[in-house]
Write a structure and sequence with these properties.
The chain is an all-alpha fold and 402 residues long. It has 21 helices and no strands. 79% of the residues lie in helices and 0% in strands. The termini are close together.
Length: 402
């Protein structure tokens, strides 16, 4: 079994990513509510999601560089406090402009958490447990989505939209857990860099790997955000499903996402990172006709469940895959930066799908976009490489041990 330090490190990354995702997805469940409150078209609220995604690379650079220079723990604590404060302030937004600015600033915090949390978790994880722990870590994203759905169902109707954001101040308490329970990464202590120039040279020396990771993450973002963000709106607008029922479908599909991340994360320990991701993509591809064109609530809900088993099954492998491919000296920076550059390029996904809806209908907008995404991902993964079981410690080159 993983040691206590491994469990605490993964728990910190998991909780941070859960709370970060919750703070992002609460907007998805309030598109109509926020549009009515601020007196703007719904597409402008959709654009705030894009603003959040656009600013995530800024956070990856800031907190990633801090993590490689000063260790993983302190930057992760600072990140958690930062995005908690921003969420608290968002609940006090008086105008749409204020709301937009705060959602962009939240993107900085969201962009910084994943890379630092993932490197801390994976560097503390025994190699034979990396796959399943990677899945557990990444499932925090789905747990955050699930909690946002529950809040939309039980908090929003009773207390109003402001409380959806004020709840975002609670994650600040996670900083105390990180401070007192989570160990610093030994791998960072062995490979720490002294200057910004050394960080830059390390990234430049692995430019091809970095470019590949950005390409991979771009289409992984198309996969996740393209199947999740607008799906509640699709159910309500295209299938005329009431909001309370749509929220239940979202809860169900995120249960599938959590299951998929853990199953395929463990599978990657046996058959490799890329083959496991390809298997997960196959599951999602088979679900598309029922997920987007299903004529009944039962079919749509079941297909959404299966779709997210595949989507987050592939995503569950990403933390370990990116950290194994990253250079030792900039593991806090490179995985998170590639992740967030991918989201920078993919940031217009919601806007694109919303615009396609007006041209080809909501069903084809979602289905066509994701079919192309999955086919491209298949090619990218097939042409890529992996370093499953690579050691993160100096002088230790034996694979699949611990």
């Amino acid at each position: 079994m993983p040691s206590n330090k491994s469990r605490h490190a993964v728990a910190a990354g998991f909780l941070g990513w859960t709370l970060d995702a919750f703070d992002f997805f609460v907007v998805v469940f309030m598109l109509d509510v926020l549009a009515a409150h601020f007196g703007v078209p719904k597409r402008q609220i959709v654009n705030t999601l894009t603003a959040t995604l656009l600013f995530r690379p800024v956070g990856a650079i800031i907190f990633g560089m801090l993590a490689d220079r000063f260790g993983r723990r302190m930057p992760l604590m600072a990140n958690v406090v930062y995005f908690s404060v921003i969420e608290l302030l968002t609940g006090f937004s008086g105008t749409f402009t204020q709301f937009l600015i705060l959602r962009a600033l939240f993107g900085i915090g969201m962009g910084g958490e994943w890379g630092v949390g993932a490197s801390l978790a994976m560097e503390n994880a025994p190699r034979k447990w990396r796959g399943v722990l990677s899945g557990i870590l990444q499932s925090g994203y789905s747990c955050g989505f699930l909690l946002a759905a529950l809040a939309s169902r039980f908090v929003l109707p009773r207390f109003g939209w402001q409380w959806m954001f004020w709840l975002g101040a609670l994650p600040a308490l996670l900083a105390f857990y990180i401070r007192f329970s989570v160990p610093e990464s030994k791998a960072w202590e062995e490979h720490r860099v002294g200057t910004l120039r050394e960080m830059f040279n390390a990234v430049r020396g692995h430019a091809k790997t970095f470019a590949y990771l950005v390409l991979l993450m771009t289409f992984m973002m198309f996969l996740s955000h393209g199947t999740q963000d607008l799906y509640p709106d699709f159910l309500k607008e295209s299938r005329h499903i009431v909001k309370s029922t749509a929220d239940l479908v979202v809860i169900l599909m995120n249960v599938g996402a959590i299951i998929g991340a853990i199953i395929f994360g463990q599978l990657s320990q046996n058959i490799g990172r890329r083959y496991s991701m390809l298997c997960a993509l196959g599951v999602s591809l088979l679900a598309i006709p029922f997920w987007s064109f299903g004529g009944s609530l039962l079919v749509l809900a079941g297909a959404a469940f299966v779709m997210q088993i595949g989507v987050q099954g592939a995503w569950g492998i990403i933390p370990v895959h990116l950290n194994e491919l990253a250079p030792d000296s900039v593991r806090g920076l490179v995985p998170g930066l590639a992740y967030q550059f991918g989201i920078l390029i993919a940031a217009p996904v919601n806007t694109i799908q919303h615009a396609l809806r007006d041209r080809v209908g909501y069903s084809w907008a979602l289905a066509g976009f994701e079919i192309v995404t999955m086919l491209v991902l298949t090619v990218v993964l097939s042409l890529g490489r992996e370093e499953k079981g690579r050691s993160f410690h100096s002088g230790d080159v034996v694979l699949e041990t611990d």
